[in-house]
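Bug #77: duplicate submission created two jobs. Keeping one. Sequence:
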Amino acid sequence: MIENLFSFFVIIALGVLFQILKPAQIDADTARRVINAIVIKFMMPALCFRVISTMAIDRNTIFFPLSAILTVLVVLVLTYFVINIMGLFVRIRRRQRGALLLTATFGNVTFFGLPILTTLYGQSAEKFPLMYDFLGAGTLMWTVGAAIAAYFGAVPRQKEIFGGIKRGLKTILLNPPIWALVLAFIANFCGLGARLPHPILTVLTMLSAPVIPLMIFSVGLCLKVPRLKDFTLAAPAVIIKIVVSPIIGFFIAHFLGLTGLALKASTLEAGLPVMIMTLALSLQYGLDHKLAALATVLSLLAAFVSIPLIAGLLEGGSLL
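Kept job's structure:
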């Protein structure tokens, strides 16, 4: 596990190095947009269809996305109360409240979760980050998260809040992996996934193979030097995201009857570092994006310690 995390760290560091060197005069934002477009529009749909169309559908599969949704909502409510309590002792501006709500609630469940879970549990775990994101946390990110960003933004207006939700729903409907999941479930229910011709399966496998290293590299392209003076504000959000959220995720998954690998995956997914898209929403709606960037970096660094600990506890039965 430590060796694999070291590999992730090196690949992320190469992404950061790309920002500094700008090879072929390509800036990091351009490279990130190109990589993300290729991954999301071509490689991720191939991965979704290959994994979901051939997986066994059972109770764990059905309740896993619900576990993601409930975990996100519970963490969101908890974070709201924590921020209000913090506000009794320190001044927290409106724009900062919105940034903290997003960073404490939404994790990098695919771009970081997919390589983590497949490293720990092999290809049998590929389906879980995809369902956790596209059927659960990611959907809430583009609806509830967008509404929060609009409400706490620089110019909060009711029209802008509904506009944020509308844009979020449009993003979901135009997201190729979502449609790949829909087609994959249809193929699975019809028994077509198990009968995919070998050439098609080979194409899907080859097309989805670069997803993990490209996603990890893209994380490095997004990281910026944070503003350290806001450490006292960011720290509680990071603690909620890295420590409290996986505990909540575990108990919700356990309550829903998830077992085995599904229970482990739900717990680990809940404790992953901050989703990079929270930075995009913070910039778009005028939240404190520098505070969001600090929470993102701190959560990523903390995750290199917390993930092995959580995985060890799950494997040792301390949480089970």
